[in-house]
Hints:
The structure is a single chain. The termini are far apart. The protein contains six helices and no strands. 65% of the residues lie in helices and 0% in strands. The protein is mainly alpha-helical.
Amino acid sequence: MKRVFVRAVLAMSIVLFASVSAGREAVPMAEDPKLEARLVDISQELRCLVCQNESLASSHAELADDLRQEVRELIRSGKSDQEIKDFLVARYGDFVLYRPEVKPLTWLLWFGPFLLLVIAAIFLGVYLRQRRALAAPLALSDEARERAKQLLKD
């Protein structure tokens, strides 16, 4: 029993050690604090292509590290913020922007949820009208009314 316990503790410590040693090292800040501040501002407006619901600034994915490095290089080469965004959009599409421009190519992205909501409301209205028509009480004929009165009296 003691031997099983020792093996279990050993196995758990190996797993724990392996997971701790597999962690990545923090990426060093740039030598220029202004460059790093500009990188953070730009990368907060960009979407991580792996995580999708995280900004490039807050993502820990390796691709995000590569994209941040690419943005650093573009900043160092003297590109403006808009030129950097245009470069990334040309390379990865409008999806890389957290707030893509409203243009015919992105209309579905911007107005699609509202369109789906309107379509759902229309279908709900049609369904409720049909349901109301099916549930409407039928008018009794005079003969059926007299028969019902007789049944209720008995």
